């Protein structure tokens, strides 16, 4: 009898389990049939960066800021392509990660929002609002784009903190990256920071102009090799428009906005020596490598050091995306596209 009851109870338990599973599947099926709010229209998190949670309205703010710059260049059709818009979202989300990684770094060094920063951010917001025809026009813009005044203020306040921290990193007296005079040149070389002067001739547009300008450069090189002073020839012949602003040459690093050919030629030339003729996208150069300017080199070394630490921090950041992140589409955003085409 005991076996019979045990078998009967077991059968009932299995039956209840099966019925329970069926009921759960029915509920799930009904739930899936109910239209759910899109991620960007919900109050769910879009992503997290360390301990920071980014909700749809804040993420929408960042996307709109990027679209304001990209749409006039690429147009709506480009962003309507899901794969291209996915790449764009990766750019935006990476920017969000960078902001919050930098904010955490700033807070570790004692940089947090204070009353002065709040007041400055509020003034900036008021100036932005004043650029609209009326308060109503400003509020209409917020309504149409799904944003809020608080989100704008939050962004401006964050910028105040980050700006103060940026000044701290690169300030000659306060920076945590202090560089002694005796180690300046070795550190500059380690980080690829060089100094250079050059005798420059424009490329020219026609083949005749290109040939004539290259010939001028060849003549200048011949005069150098005959013993004439580099600086004298540079001041006499160079067509560099920046010569009057930088009469003692340039200091630059791998992240500076210099032609890669110019950078490589400087790197491959010994200090105090000059190159053969170097052809860049701009024209023809004879480059003399010099020691970098101490103040400029210190700044660029600090930038390189901070960039390395920032990259390490970003790599270590804990970033989690919503499982629905891939659902985000260009149509989720409303922005003026009058100049997009």
The termini sit apart by 84 Å
**Percentage of helical residues?**
55-70%
Number of domains: 2
**Globular, elongated, flat, extended or rod-shaped: what is the shape?**
elongated
State the strand order across the main sheet: 4-3-6-5
Order of helices and strands: HEEHHHHHHEHHEHEEHE
CA radius of gyration = 31 Å
Residue-averaged pLDDT, rounded? 87
Class by helix and strand content?
alpha+beta
Largest sheet data? 4 strands, antiparallel
Tally of helical runs: 11
Strand content: 5-15%
Given as residue ranges, the uncertain stretches (5+ residues, pLDDT < 50) are 1-10, 13-35, 336-341
Strands, total number:
7
Task: Please describe the structure with a list of short key phrases separated by commas or semicolons.
disordered C terminus, 341 residues, elongated, Chitinase A, domain 3, 58% helix, alpha+beta, 11 helices
Secondary structure layout plus pairing:
Blueprint: H1 2-33, E1 47-49, E2 52-54, H2 56-79, H3 82-108, H4 115-130, H5 135-145, H6 149-170, H7 184-190, E3 194-202, H8 207-225, H9 230-237, E4 250-252, H10 260-267, E5 274-279, E6 283-290, H11 294-316, E7 319-321
Antiparallel strand pairs: 1-2, 1-7, 3-4, 3-6, 5-6
Explain what this protein looks like in three dimensions:
With 341 residues, the chain is of the alpha+beta class. The chain folds into 2 domains: 50-175 and 313-332, no CATH class; 194-291, Chitinase A, domain 3 (Roll), CATH 3.10.50.40. It is 58% helix and 10% strand. It has 11 helices and 7 strands. It has helices at residues 2-33, 56-79, 82-108, 115-130, 135-145, 149-170, 184-190, 207-225, 230-237, 260-267, 294-316; strands at 47-49, 52-54, 194-202, 250-252, 274-279, 283-290, 319-321. It has a 4-stranded antiparallel beta sheet with strand order 4-3-6-5, with helices on both faces. The protein has a 3-stranded antiparallel beta sheet with strand order 2-1-7. The longest helix has 32 residues, at 2-33. It is elongated and about 75 Å long. The protein starts with a helix and ends in a 20-residue tail after the last strand.
